[in-house]
Design a protein that fits this description.
By secondary structure, the chain is of the alpha/beta class. The chain contains 13 helices and 14 strands. The chain has two domains: 243 residues, Peroxisomal Thiolase, Chain A, domain 1, CATH 3.40.47; 152 residues, Thiolase/Chalcone synthase (Peroxisomal Thiolase, Chain A, domain 1, 3-Layer(aba) Sandwich), CATH 3.40.47.10. Helix 10 packs across helix 11.
């Protein structure tokens, strides 16, 4: 069958830079950092003491206190961002066929905070003291489940778990579901809240995190010579995807069009990316082919750009492999320089950012870029200052531990 077109009609963001889309977007365009000393747990025993936290978050505007206690933090974030995206889209689900509306949300780690808390209780007070809400709070699929219950949606409902590619894969699954007629509307994206002692210990001990503790706002520096690891972050990024004719019929505001998807595996290593970027390049190539966008028609790439030595050099090679000589002409930036790495939420947040970049013709910068790295040899990482430019088509890259690669293409809506 002929693939249907997919519009982006609603956006939601919750990050260290803002509790909504306008605030986060403004801060990104101003080159502000949301990274600071860790407060969600005592950072003293950890080698890395910086994080990108959503500080002082209160779920009560979205969830009653009693219900909130039965949910994990990543679910609060997902519900809040989904609420913003749905309100932004203008959809009234009471007037929609709820069997053709669904929810697909990704998370890499889910309810790890609750697991830690209940394990301590088990050891200290015995099995009978473990909360009966442990399992639903742990489940990554709680996020899409709770959102579907909120809106009484009965269409596709699932969770994706592919480490840092989870949010991007959720959006990709939603895109395909709409393209091929399974649904007309899907709320999709990613959410994560993994700034916990156990997660920090694990990432620190594998030497993945930045230890630039004396200058938190400078700790995340993708593609820059002196980068020393990623900064862990939390938050959510959710979009409402909608079949184009359905969106036009109800007079929806359309931010852009979801044009293409590429999904591949490295087949290389459980945590390290293939240094040559073969799988990442193939994901970009497949996404552009799926979108019908030639390499020389690509305007901008929002890179995975984690600020780790291995990822950034690999991604630079992958972009060259995918685009060939055109790679010298395509600006690339990493908003992780400001937001840190939101793990399973990264793909959702960055898809929203790419959509805003296309809609507003503004590319956010890579901040903290001062000294070029010969291993990251692309000519334009949009250093330090946002750029006004025509953006007709852009890629959002997301790569995860396990060798999971996703590239999503967003284009300007042209009717």
């Amino acid at each position: 069958m002929h693939a249907r077109r997919v519009a982006i009609t609603g956006l939601g963001l919750l990050t260290s830079l803002g509790r909504d889309v306008p605030t986060t977007w403004k801060s990104l365009c101003e080159g502000k950092s949301g990274i600071a000393r860790t407060t969600l747990c005592d950072p003293e025993e950890f080698e890395s003491k910086v994080a990108s936290e959503v500080k002082g978050f209160d779920p009560s505007p979205w969830v009653a206190p009693r219900e909130a206690r039965r949910m994990e933090r990543f679910c609060w974030f997902a519900i809040a961002s989904a609420d913003e995206a749905v309100r932004d889209s203008g959809i009234d689900f009471s007037k929609e066929d709820i069997t053709r509306a669904g929810v697909i949300i990704g998370s890499g780690i889910g309810g790890i905070g609750e697991m830690e808390a209940q394990h301590k209780k088990l050891l200290a007070r015995g099995a009978r003291r473990v909360s009966p809400f442990l399992i639903p709070k742990l489940m990554i699929n709680s996020a899409p489940g709770l959102i579907s219950i909120r809106y009484r949606l009965q269409g596709p409902n699932s969770a994706t778990v592919t480490a840092c590619a989870s949010g991007a894969h959720a959006l990709g699954d939603a895109f395909r579901s709409i393209q091929y007629g399974e649904a007309d509307i899907i709320i999709a994206g990613g959410s994560e809240a993994a700034i916990t002692p156990l997660a920090l210990a694990g990432f620190c001990n594998m030497k993945a995190l930045s230890t630039r503790n004396d200058a938190p706002t400078e700790a995340s520096r993708p593609f820059e010579k002196h980068r020393d690891g990623f900064v862990i972050g939390e938050g959510a990024g959710i979009a409402v995807l909608e079949e184009l004719e359905h969106a036009k019929k109800r007079g929806a505001h359309i931010y852009g069009e979801f044009l293409g998807l590429g999904r591949t595996g490295d087949g290389y290593h459980i945590t390290q990316p293939d240094p040559e970027g073969t799988g990442a390049a193939l994901a970009m190539t497949k996404a552009l082919e799926d979108a019908g966008v030639a390499p020389d028609e690509l305007s901008y790439i929002n890179a995975h750009g984690t600020s780790t030595t291995l990822n950034d050099s690999m991604e630079s090679r992958a972009i060259r492999r995918a685009l060939g000589p055109v790679a010298d002409n395509v600006p690339v930036s990493s908003t992780k320089s400001m937001l840190g790495h939101l793990l399973g939420a990264a793909g959702g947040v960055e898809f929203v950012v790419v959509t805003l970049a296309v809609f507003n013709d503004v590319a956010p910068p890579t901040i903290n870029y001062t000294t070029p790295d010969p291993d990251c040899d692309l000519p334009d990482y949009i250093p330090n200052t946002a750029r006004e430019m025509t953006i007709n088509a852009a890629i959002s890259n997301t790569f995860g531990f396990g060798g999971h690669n996703a590239a999503l293409v967003v284009g300007k809506f042209k009717g």
